[in-house]
Design a protein that fits this description.
With about 575 residues, this protein is an all-alpha fold. It has a two-stranded antiparallel ribbon. The longest helix is centred in the last third of the chain and has 36 residues.
């Protein structure tokens, strides 16, 4: 008895390790291509389902797809109806693994392990090494299933254990519960169905007896998504509930029709293992065909059942960072890039509030900005800690390069927020001491700020979208319609030159004896320095990801379009240069 239990547990452990090893290899070989698939989403439910199927087939894990959806939905980048379409497609894509497991490849399992090992060890390109890892993992899965099959065959010599096994698989409710619990524990429906295929290969169960186990595997695979969404936003929880709802609907449809469904699927193949694989595929295809037309009504129903909570609107709460995504560094880094983009939006809002603080008579304007900076600091800490956790995983050179770039961008955003806070404290000092800028000085500060803000916003927009922002035509009043500003380096130099010129203009007012200029001189010059520093931080953010291929191949060294800022009677200081060519 002990040797039989050891064989079952050992075979199961080899299967689970092989599945994980295979999935990791496939995910590493796919790399950032997974991100590109999701970016091709449209409002078409058919396209969403196709993306989910391809994604799941690439990584052989519908769980990985669902976990990513939870993070994307939590940030509002994927609508609930789109997520439902992707989930339905992913469930179809993951049936490919079960189809492979239904083949009798046990005698070739060790050959696959050896071939994968040598491919991984000798490959000059990393993608072939990762594919070798996936091949070795697949061989381990086949070897583990063969070991389980041999152990189940030996059960016939132990009447008591064989009777217990037969009783378990003969009770549909017990089989459903057991398969659901086992799948939830091992986070793999393929492992459950692989075990089911092994039992069928030894004649231990029929297709009719296997249907509850198929249903349980489909339900149990939702556990990971539920755990991922437990502490996330309302949209993330809605995706997890949609996932479970779809699976329960499929089981509710299948349960009273098990006998005719089994009779129909028995005609698709002669062997029971192949019939089980076909039943799994057909069930998910039927769910896809029935679920796509119902995705939008189901989404609206779930939105009503799970209303939004006020806590989900906390800007300091991460919306993308998913702990379960850490197992796949390429996906986790994409989550970080999206969260940094959201952090950039908060800092951009702070930069936009500077003019309101320069001439405010309400101290709440300044206090509100300082409270927003506290939220930025908390979010920065969360992102930084998450990046540290990613660093504990194995990463390739491309992923390490992306990590360094994201850390640099994160640091520059924190410094930019600190610069805005320094401006806020200077403005509060003006308010506390009842000081005010001269009209000329206020116009100069506003003009420099407008230029810095447009540069800052343009760089962040390019970082978030991964594409060059469209050119913005200047207003007809400035006489530069259809023209664009210089490239990033030239625009940064122009801002630095403008800052020096405004210092000279301010010193001229001091010599002329302007009362307001004398009272606010130190504050005025410090604010000029902080505005220039914001431009430098924007340039550094662009340089950190220049010519990067790790976030979709975009480069932030492309021209940054900046409209001229009217100043002193409508002219621009300094004048914009015409773009060459």
């Amino acid at each position: 008895m002990f040797s039989i239990l050891l064989g079952l547990l050992g075979g199961l452990a080899i299967v689970l390790h092989g599945l994980r090893y295979c999935s990791e290899g496939l995910q590493k070989s796919a790399g950032n291509r997974l991100k590109t698939l999701l970016r091709r989403l449209t409002k078409s439910q058919v396209r969403a389902a196709a993306v989910g199927a391809v994604f799941s087939a690439l990584v052989q894990s519908s769980t990985a797809v669902t976990v990513m959806l939870v993070g994307l939905a939590g940030a509002g980048l994927v609508s609930l109806s789109q997520a439902i379409g992707i989930i339905l497609g992913a469930d179809v894509g993951t049936t490919f693994a079960v189809q492979i497991l239904a083949f009798d490849t046990g005698p070739w399992s060790l050959a696959l392990v050896a071939a994968g090992y040598f491919l991984n060890a000798t490959a000059r390109r990393k993608i072939w090494g990762h594919l070798g890892q996936a091949l070795s993992g697949l061989g381990l899965v086949f070897f583990g299933l063969r070991l389980i099959g041999q152990t189940v065959g030996a059960l016939r010599n132990d009447p008591m254990l064989y009777h217990l096994l037969s009783a378990a698989v003969s009770n549909p409710y017990l089989a459903l519960f057991g398969a659901t619990l086992f799948t939830a524990l091992v986070h793999s429906s393929a492992a459950t169905l692989g075990f089911t295929v092994s039992l069928a290969a030894q004649g231990a169960l029929t297709l009719f007896q296997a249907l509850p186990m198929i249903a349980g595997a489909n339900i149990g695979t939702c556990a990971t998504a539920l755990l991922s969404a437990a502490g996330s936003t309302t949209d993330a929880r809605r995706v997890a509930v949609a996932h479970v709802s779809l699976k329960l609907l499929a089981v509710a449809f299948l349960w009273p029709l098990r006998a005719p469904f089994a009779a129909l699927l028995e005609r698709t193949a002669a062997s029971v293992p192949r019939q089980i694989a076909n039943a799994h595929t057909v069930l998910n295809l039927l769910l896809l065909l029935a679920g796509l037309p119902l995705s939008r009504p189901l989404a609206e129903l779930i939105k009503r059942l799970i209303p939004e909570r006020a806590a989900d609107r906390d800007p300091a709460k991460p919306q993308y960072l998913d702990r379960l995504a850490l197992e796949t560094p390429a996906l986790a880094l994409e989550h970080v890039a999206q969260e940094i983009g959201r952090l950039g939006e908060l800092v951009e809002q702070m930069v936009a509030r500077i003019p309101a603080m320069l001439n405010t008579t309400n101290p709440l304007v300044i206090e509100n900005l300082l409270r927003q900076e506290e939220a930025v600091d908390r979010l920065f800490g969360e992102i930084n800690a998450y990046l540290g956790d990613i660093g504990q995983r194995f990463m390739g050179k491309g992923e390490m390069k992306t990590t360094i770039e994201l850390l640099h961008v994160l640091s520059e955003l924190e410094h930019a927020a600190d610069a805005v806070v320094k401006i806020a404290l200077l403005c509060r000092k003006c308010f506390d001491e009842a000081l005010s800028f001269s009209d000329e000085g206020l116009r100069e500060l506003s003009a420099l700020h407008a230029r810095v803000q447009r540069l800052f916003s343009s760089v962040l927009e390019t970082f978030r979208s991964g594409r060059k922002p469209p050119p913005r035509s200047s207003s007809p009043d400035d006489g530069m319609e259809g023209q664009c500003g210089p490239d990033l380096a030239e625009e940064t130099s122009t801002i630095a030159l403008l800052e020096r010129q405004l210092r000279e203009v301010h010193l001229g007012r001091l010599q002329a004896g302007y009362k307001e200029s004398r009272a606010t001189s130190a504050i005025h010059l410090d604010i000029l320095s902080m505005l220039r520093r914001l431009a430098d931080h924007a340039a550094s953010i662009a340089a950190a990801t220049d010519a990067s291929s790790s976030r979709g191949g975009h480069s932030l060294s492309r021209p940054v379009f900046v409209a001229p800022v009217p100043f002193e009677g409508g002219r621009s200081l300094p004048p914009e240069k015409e773009p060459s060519g």
